[in-house]
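Q: Convert this sequence to structure tokens.
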Amino acid sequence: MKIENLKVYDTLECFKAAGYPMRTEIENSDHLEEKDVERAFKLVKASNGNGAHGQFLTGIRVNFDLTCSNKMWVEAERYRFLEFVSSQSTMHRITKFDIKSQCNEYVDPRVIAIAQEKIDAYNADPRSNKEKVDMKLAILYNIPSGFELTARMTTNYRCLLNIYIQRHNHELPEWREFCEYIKNNLPFFNLFIKAYNQEEFNEALNAVADEEAMDSTD
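A:
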């Protein structure tokens, strides 16, 4: 599992928007006050009992390139708000991939050899692609679950918090790695986890002192 090209958007704005339900006038300010931070983390804490309280997290958008196995991709597709921007395609390029380099360490070398043998036979056959449909299907249906592809994803903090809660102790090591990554690399995410788990999160007040951390383009 690998995450690259991470971008986070609208963190500051969503902290402030969390207070809109109790305001009659909206203040246009690029500065967070202590009450904005306290409110946001209290809402996340309350979302443990009523998920609606975490609605403001939906606006903190996160984009990244995710590389993982077919097995993880099948499970990731359960999340409605973890959306694909674009991805590598086995339908278009399976006969061009280097199968061995695309597979993780859990794939049996014998499985890789079978898949590569079918690809080599396909590429050596002089017939047109339309005449080799069955050969291509035999390749596609024999690609292992440990075959890795990369996709650009777009999602939000609310979805990612849900994923973390459900998957941080998952049997697949890829999910555990994914959860550790978002916990340690998304601004304030670790503190949101603590708030959700009813832990102390006073350190959040100090974290906003550096407002450059609000929107990451790393």
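The longest strand covers residues 61-69.
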